[in-house]
Write a structure and sequence with these properties.
With 330 residues, this protein is of the alpha/beta class. The protein is 38% helix and 18% strand. The strands form four sheets. Strands 1-4-8-5-9-10-13-14 form an eight-stranded mixed β-sheet, with helices on both faces. The chain has a two-stranded antiparallel sheet with strand order 2-3.
Length: 330
């Protein structure tokens, strides 16, 4: 690979005006920020994560959100591929997003797919080698494959389906109401902290929590305190340092609005399901696989980390992802 240059491109792209969203609203001055990193001559893979993800996919000093999977020799091998990451519209980063206390129109996962297609065309790419999408990113990848089949050769979907699980919507509905009521009181960060703490209880499995936090509660002068409380609320505290309550509302709702037509996906697809995932149960991914109309493979793993397995199970996932991408090399 001597003599082959590697570059990093950070850019904010103005989207076509008017940028009409899936539910009919127009987003004024719409823009999407992206990062493209890697060898200039390498195939491009878009890597998309959960609603908290952003355009920095891999990197040093904790900058990237998926260093377990994206890097030299890993599942998405940065020695072989260029990696494209996005700041989701409505989310964290430099893309169009709600301001503190501001209103923002409802977003569909199709809207994120439209933004990705604009980036692909802006870069002059004939097609993406693949999209690797986890959680919300998997939903976006499915929408992209349905709507822009000519722009992607393969999709790898981790813990995502073609429609939300109603029980997951129930949990997220409570989280959003906590945040709305906190915003109304002028303290959106306090609501976001509680919503994130509740969310963590849905991301992981009962087995993990029993192993880590099964000790007896401790009594202080006011009440008993349970070991799990410190963990949950610490995660909430961390989250409010990085994310806005308004962005959480927009993208959490987008998760639950997700509905796409899997029968219109003909793109080769690798599905990776986690048996212990409470948010995207294995049965939902089985049903998705049955509805797809292209070549597909459904791979099942077990993990005490549940829905968060895509962030924690690098040893199990890297070989699966690496093989899926290698089989599509042209």
């Amino acid at each position: 690979m001597a003599g082959q240059s590697s570059t990093q491109l950070d850019h904010t792209l103005r989207l076509p005006q008017p940028f009409t969203l899936h539910y009919g609203d127009v987003l004024p001055d719409a823009k999407v920020a992206f990062r493209l990193v890697g060898r200039d001559d390498a195939p491009v893979i878009a890597v998309l994560g959960g609603i908290s993800a952003h355009r920095a996919v891999a990197g040093s000093a904790g900058e990237g959100w998926w260093p377990q999977i994206v890097g030299p020799g890993l599942g998405v091998d940065t020695r072989q591929y260029r990696v494209l990451g996005l700041d989701y519209i409505g989310g964290r980063g430099e893309s169009s997003a709600p301001q503190n206390g501001g209103r923002f129109p409802p977003l569909s996962s199709y809207d994120q797919a439209d933004a990705l297609s604009a980036v692909v065309r802006h870069l002059g790419l004939k097609a993406l080698h693949a999209i690797v999408g986890a959680s919300y990113g998997g939903m976006v990848a499915l929408c992209f494959a349905e709507r822009y089949a000519e722009l992607v050769k393969h999709i790898v979907i981790l813990s995502a389906a073609d429609r939300p699980q109603v029980l997951a919507t129930a949990w997220r509905s409570v989280q959003r109401q906590i945040v709305r009521e906190a915003i109304a009181r002028g303290d959106g960060a306090a609501g976001l902290k509680l919503a994130r703490a509740l969310a963590m209880a849905t991301y992981r499995s009962a087995v993990e929590f029993q192993l880590r936090f099964g000790a007896a509660p401790k009594r202080n002068e006011d009440r008993f305190r349970f070991p799990i409380e410190d963990y949950l609320f610490a995660r909430g505290d961390d989250y409010v340092q990085k994310y806005r309550a308004e962005s959480f509302l927009v993208l959490s709702e987008s998760l639950d609005l997700h509905q796409m037509d899997a029968t219109q996906v003909h793109t080769p697809t690798t599905l990776i399901a986690v048996r212990e995932d409470q948010l995207v149960p294995f049965a939902d991914m089985q049903a998705l696989s049955a509805r797809l109309n292209g070549p597909r493979q459904l791979i099942e793993i077990n993990s005490i980390f549940g829905h968060d397995a895509f962030l924690k199970e690098g040893a199990a996932l890297n070989p699966i992802i690496k093989l899926a991408l290698a089989e599509q090399r042209t």
